[in-house]
Design a protein that fits this description.
Blueprint lengths: L1 H6 L6 H33 L2 H12 L1 H12 L4 H18 L3 H19 L6 H38 L4 H17 L4 H7 L4 H21 L1 H13 L7 H6 L5 H17 L19 H16 L7 H28 L13
Helix pairs in contact: 2-3, 2-4, 4-5, 4-6, 5-6, 5-7, 6-7, 7-8, 8-10, 8-13, 10-11, 10-13, 10-15, 13-15
Length: about 350
């Protein structure tokens, strides 16, 4: 059996599934949902409908892109790799808020099953796709809804946090949503499902920005400008493979989010009164910031707000960009000096 599995390139290891597959999935997410969001946002703000259309098509390929990326990392034969596009779409749709996590789990199982039968029959072109897709979609129907429900439970914790005073709510919501953004679950879907707006939405924006900008700045020495833009305007999920290798690298941006969250809620009263989905987007395509600005405009139109003040702009700049970068960098310095974060721990394959 061991020899057969070796021949099929099926290797049961934490590195292959927890690092290689997860890192590849994050790139697939970036190359579909996140880049589509950025393109679509540019189109919405400039009035170029063609960009909105392009963005929508890119976002529509999210599940397939993640699954194919995972299959590539698992070194699947061509027929298995191509077949998993359908599996990714099923798992992502059925997984709801936990779509990316569902894609990861289901695709790994479907990929290895596809490898088992690949080139074992004379009708490989029929058998391999049938097994890969059949196993993947069946598992999606079975597991993905439960994974989505588990991800939504994160949202329930957020709703509980919003019942607390603004200071503690700011800390908890900022940390929880920020962590959700970096994990292979959809923080944007959670925020949308819970209609997370107002002060809670502002705290969510703060937490997401702390993760994205924090990782972008903290890892600049390893990833330079490419990493700065990929994480700062894309997603901190790109670091998940590195987090599995060394969980300590997650501490600086998470601690930063615990600081910026209450500053957002108590000092600046930062509110997300735009679309709830923007609360979970952070600086991805600047969707979070555009959502806050849209909320200001809506509040002025309804009479709830007199005008956009200099304090509003200062708060947005500090909470979303300056404080996350500066705080995360400062917190990481003693950790690097102590050897908790080593050279190369934050390196991305860009």
């Amino acid at each position: 059996m061991k020899e057969f599995l070796r021949k099929k390139n099926i290797i049961f290891s934490a590195k292959r599934y927890g690092i290689d597959a997860l890192s590849a999935m994050a790139q697939g997410l970036f190359a579909s949902l996140l880049i589509g969001t950025i393109i679509g946002t540019i189109g919405e703000q400039t009035g170029l409908s063609i960009l909105v259309t392009i963005g929508n098509y890119a976002k529509g390929a999210t599940g397939a892109a993640m699954a194919v990326s995972i299959a590539f990392a698992l070194q699947c034969p061509p027929l298995v790799l191509f077949s998993l596009a359908a599996v990714g779409m099923a798992a992502n749709e059925l997984g709801g808020a936990g779509g990316p996590l569902a894609v990861l789990v289901v695709t790994i199982f479907a990929a290895e099953c596809g490898k088992l039968v690949s080139k074992e029959t004379k009708i490989d072109i029929i058998v391999t796709p049938m097994v890969s897709i059949g196993v993947g979609v069946a598992l999606s129907l079975w597991w993905a809804p439960a994974i989505g429900a588990a991800a939504s439970s994160v949202g329930q914790a957020i709703m509980w946090a919003t019942e607390l005073q603004p200071f503690f709510m700011g800390i908890l919501v900022s940390v929880i949503v920020g962590v959700a953004l970096t994990l292979p679950i959809s923080s944007a879907a959670i925020c949308a499902a819970l209609s997370l707006t107002g002060l809670a939405g502002g705290a969510a924006v703060a937490g997401c920005c702390a993760q994205m900008v924090g990782f972008a700045v903290m890892s600049f020495r390893e990833n330079k400008w490419g990493g700065l833009f990929a994480q700062g305007l894309g997603t901190s999920m790109l670091q998940m493979g590195n987090i599995v290798r060394n969980p300590k690298i997650w501490l600086p941006p998470t601690i930063a989010s615990a600081i910026t969250g209450p500053i957002a809620t108590c000092l600046f009263g930062l509110k997300m009164n735009g679309a709830a989905v923007a609360s979970g987007m952070g600086t991805c395509g600047l969707v979070g910031q555009i959502g806050v600005y849209t909320g200001w405009v809506n509040d002025i139109a309804s009479g709830a707000k007199a005008a956009i003040t200099a304090t509003d702009w200062l708060g947005l700049l500090l909470i979303c960009f300056l404080l996350p970068g500066v705080l995360t960098w400062l917190i990481s310095l003693p950790m690097r000096a102590a050897g908790w974060i080593r050279e190369g721990d934050l390196k991305l394959d860009l």
